[in-house]
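Dear Dr. H.,

I hope your travels went smoothly. While you were away I took the liberty of generating a structure for the chain from your last submission, since the lab meeting agenda had it listed for discussion. I wanted you to have the full record in hand beforehand rather than looking at slides cold. The sequence, exactly as received, is reproduced here:
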Amino acid sequence: MRRKIFALMLITILGLTGCSEVAGTNSRTLGGSKSVNDVLEEQMAAEDAANAGTSEEVVEDSKTSVPAAATSMHTAEYMDDFGDTIDLTGQSSTMTYSVVFNMVFYPENFVGKHVKLEGLYSEMYVESTDKRYYACFVPDAAACCAQGIEFEPTEEYKYPDDFPKDSDEIIVEGVFDTYDEDGEVYCTLRDAKFTKKAAN
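The corresponding predicted structure, in token form, is as follows:
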């Protein structure tokens, strides 16, 4: 049930941001649009072509180094290159989307890492459990797909006063973890802190 609600939230967010096509978070497609795997393969091929002959090249930002060609990000050895902190706030949309995609599908490689990312805020309330869920959705470069990560804010935030509106751009950081609910495994950022991103 929660997956269906998050899918509807994602469609709404992408619709509000001007996306004409939305792909699911698995290999199935909606309305003939490209799957996540298709888009990732195209983007990775484009990055590989741009970095041809420089497989050891890294993209530098002031806080972290991220390998430019991310063809096997799901391996534990590759994830060790990030260290204990993964700061995606200065990375390209392709790199950010790729890492978040791998967080969702290979969560065991990220548990315990401090993660910082920016994306679109979303929330949902589930009446049957009387629980509110918060998420940060990260669109890819083509804005045709997005992947979301839940987060659990620290107690310093009071709802609704301290929370942004749906689809506001936010920066969120917390410790990556997983949990089981209704037989499903979900990813979350625990002890999360977030800020609304300043408008340019």
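Two observations you may find useful: Residues 129 and 181 are 11 Å apart (CA to CA). Confidence is low (pLDDT under 50) at residues 10-36, 54-72.

With kind regards,
E. W.
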